[in-house]
Design goal:
Belongs to the CDP-alcohol phosphatidyltransferase class-I family. Its main location: membrane. The protein is mostly helical. It has eight helices and no strands. The termini are far apart.
Length: 206
């Protein structure tokens, strides 16, 4: 269901993103530049605002710059496809952005004396990186690993919804969202390891 929603979102955004992508390419801006700029924008929103408790401003900035994930990919396709370095850079910048978001949320919750919420944020940060690593390692070994209940879009959506509910007065919402996300991320690691294990069992040893 989550992947169906993701595909639908990409389709809906394409009519807006494509004209912007064409304009940027005509201006000589590369997809890699957009990738880095988007990451910097997310870090500004997270470290500059979320860490200080300005959650609404942070949420707006992060959502706007997170959309560059659609933009740089669209630009790459218009240029004939992503390069190997472009794919590497995009994945690396995603990890940097995730660290900024969850690290800032942990800092904010620590400042609110919500130690358990802080622990949940740090768990989301650590396990989320493992989720991504397992996929990258599997693909590096020539296997697929595009499975799991809590992939990156779901992780960002979860913390975003939790932050939004906190803004409107439900102070428990962000820690609750983080604990749920931490649990789902652990499940996702297990799903990915099991998926790779099944593939490995069918391969003939060298």
């Amino acid at each position: 269901m989550a992947k169906i929603f993701r595909v639908s979102a990409r389709t809906a955004l394409s009519s807006v993103v494509e004209p912007i992508a064409r304009a940027l390419l005509r201006a000589g801006i590369t997809p890699n530049t957009v990738t880095v700029a988007g990451t910097i924008g997310v870090l500004v929103g997270a470290i500059g605002f979320a860490a200080r408790g300005q959650l609404l401003v942070a949420l707006v900035i992060i959502v706007v710059f997170a959309l560059t994930d659609f933009l740089d990919g669209t630009m790459a396709r218009m240029k004939g496809g992503s390069t190997r370095f472009g794919a590497f850079l995009d994945s690396s910048m995603d990890r940097v952005a995730d660290a900024g978001i969850f690290g800032s949320v942990a800092y904010y919750l620590a400042g609110q004396d919500d130690r358990w919420g802080m622990v949940a944020a740090l768990l989301c940060l650590a396990v989320g990186q493992i989720v991504s690593y397992v996929k990258a390692r599997a693909e590096g070994l020539g296997m697929t690993c595009n499975v799991g209940i809590a992939e990156r879009p779901e992780r960002l959506l979860s913390v975003g919804v939790g932050g939004l509910l906190t803004i409107i007065g439900l102070e428990w919402a962000l820690p609750a969202a983080l604990w749920i996300l931490a649990a789902l991320s652990v499940v996702t690691v297990g799903q990915r390891i099991a998926h790779v294990y099944k593939q490995a069992q069918t391969q003939t040893p060298a």
